[in-house]
């Protein structure tokens, strides 16, 4: 399958352009997928521009992949030609450690293999993501797309959806709980929909009065302007959970103060130092918790798709011609997307 | 009961000296206690010297109080004259909020009344602690001292014991878990004993090779020298829990790195900013948690006393003549006590 067409960056400042990549021959447990749609995650942009260091060029981004099975390896049991399937952030892991055995492949003790920019565990080649005609993935890392989900707007469930669903489930969010969502981007708006579907009362924290209407449109029961000291003071001690999707350094202390005793502040967007410093007293005096969470394991990724199908949840997307991906990145830098770009991969054939 | 003899500080730099204080007449639910022993907690020292601000002089410290009931109010049902009882860090709370109704009086939404330096909820007077002949406390905030516990060395269970027991129980520490204990003071050495009794495999982290023998003597299964990068590297990802009793700012990141996925770092000694900053990535990429915990509620304070009696756990104490309390404070500042001073209150009568 050499010479699959893809969009790749060849250096940190080259932008994305059409590129030929190899896709491996099918191994026994492999599924070959023709890609229909691929969501555009902020991680794609960070990796293309090497913001986190360690990017390995050429980078073919994309880990919110939806497509149809075109062929399966001799040992594949769960999928057949024509099935509508998805691939998320991982394509492999050690499969034998305690995390993998618990279906928590994202916490694989040997490190999971990322969909792009990882190293294939068999031949050491660099993995390439979903801005591409095709992908070949071991069936353990393939999920089924429920029939009643619109495939294009389901794509971001594979990253933004699972990233918010996994901690909400793990930390037992449900009926009667008050959940605050910080950040109104791709993750935040999915967090609102999922927390609502889990039965929680949901408040969006936003810095700007101008976003209140949009927050309500997303289904939030309440909106708090986080820059208004009076509103923040009134919210003191009132939340069971805060789902924090903000990807840049921000002061957690005013938010921690909004948590009840035993409240949990869940970080899903931040990877850098927590600055300014957290006041330990805010944790100790109320048994509050700061937790982190990373995407979700494969069983839970299937679960969130089924959950979204059951609750009629999809992502708000803007369809994108892959030839405009560099402009899309520029718009993402300005926060100018509601809430996720999804590439229509037919446009790759035309490019 | 006016003119009860106590030891008090009258200003931040006066030290402690004999002083006369009033103890209230018995209310219906009150228990009058003649004090036999009182543990000396670092909080006493901080309050006497106004390290945290807000100290209200005269300060009569002491919240690890053991004594005998000398009289009870008309409505008291659980205690009678002659009972050996204890009083810990709290003497009252609102009793009606969700926290109080759950037996978590330490997280009372209206603020619990501290044993010393608090305001009595009925008459607004300042509460005075256990460096005193007597104390009068509502029976809800009195606990029973099991017969087979040595009363003097049980005193610190009322603060150091419950402070470590409560989070270990709350976060479900038990058989098969690997627990690291940070800090080898009053809290740390109780944490080791309690975690061992709960069935955990316990490691003490210490900065100095010189403390290894002492750590082993405390019952630790293993010791890690936290200043040795090789030992810290070898411990990467291997702990389920870290019980962090260190009361001053320290870098949490090397310790977080020692936690497995889903590991929990429990702060019980720190109230100040967490500096240097925690790397959010260490939480997110392994679903790790930083939690805080404050003493424990009244039902759990009785529980830890019964647990310690069952498992033959007491605190290692050095008995103190109250006339030497100021020298004891100086020694505590240098960490020169193994592991808790306990005042023999007979010495107050002689003073």
From TrEMBL, chains A, B:
Transmembrane segments annotated in the record for this chain: none
The organism's place on the tree of life at top rank: Bacteria
InterPro entries given in the database record: ADH-like_C, ADH-like_N, ADH_Zn_CS, CAD-like, ER, GroES-like_sf, NAD(P)-bd_dom_sf
Pfam family, one: ADH_zinc_N
Residue stretches in coiled coil: none
Cofactors demanded by this protein: Zn(2+)
Record GO terms (molecular function): alcohol dehydrogenase (NADP+) activity; zinc ion binding
Keywords: Metal-binding, Oxidoreductase, Zinc
All copies of domain Enoyl reductase (ER), residue ranges: 11-343
Similarity annotation: Belongs to the zinc-containing alcohol dehydrogenase family.
Protein name as annotated: Hydroxyacid dehydrogenase
Species for this entry: Marinobacter fuscus
């Amino acid at each position: 399958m050499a010479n699959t067409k893809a969009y790749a960056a060849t250096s940190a400042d080259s932008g994305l352009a059409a590129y030929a990549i190899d896709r491996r021959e099918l191994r026994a447990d492999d599924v070959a997928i023709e890609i229909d749609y691929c969501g555009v995650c902020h991680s794609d942009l960070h990796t293309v521009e090497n913001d986190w260091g360690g990017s390995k060029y050429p980078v073919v981004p994309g880990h919110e992949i939806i497509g149809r099975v075109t062929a399966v390896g001799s040992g594949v049991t769960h999928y057949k030609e024509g099935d509508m399937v998805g691939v998320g952030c991982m394509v492999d892991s050690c499969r034998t450690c305690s995390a993998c055995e618990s279906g928590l492949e994202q916490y694989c003790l040997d490190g999971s293999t990322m969909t792009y920019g990882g190293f294939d565990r068999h031949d050491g080649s660099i993995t390439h993501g979903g801005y591409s005609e095709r992908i070949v993935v071991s069936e353990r890392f393939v999920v089924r797309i429920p029939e009643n989900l619109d495939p294009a707007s389901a794509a971001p469930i594979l990253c933004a959806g699972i990233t918010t669903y996994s901690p909400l489930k793990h930390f037992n969010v449900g009926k009667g709980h008050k959940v605050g969502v910080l950040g109104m981007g791709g993750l935040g708006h999915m967090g609102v929909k999922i927390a609502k579907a889990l039965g929680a009362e949901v408040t969006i924290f936003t810095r700007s009065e101008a976003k209140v209407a949009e927050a309500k449109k997303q289904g939030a029961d309440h909106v708090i302007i986080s820059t208004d000291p009076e509103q923040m003071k009134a919210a003191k001690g009132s939340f069971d959970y805060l789902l924090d999707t903000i990807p840049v350094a921000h002061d957690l202390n005013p938010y921690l103060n909004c948590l009840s005793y035993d409240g949990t502040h869940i970080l899903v967007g931040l990877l850098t130092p927590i600055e300014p410093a957290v006041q330990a007293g805010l944790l100790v005096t109320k048994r509050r918790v700061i937790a982190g969470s990373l995407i979700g394991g494969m069983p839970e990724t299937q679960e969130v798709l089924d959950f979204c199908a059951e609750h009629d949840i999809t992502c708000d997307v803007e369809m994108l011609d892959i030839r405009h991906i560099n402009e899309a990145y520029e718009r993402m830098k300005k926060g100018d997307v509601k809430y996720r770009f999804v590439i229509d991969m037919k446009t790759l054939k035309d490019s």
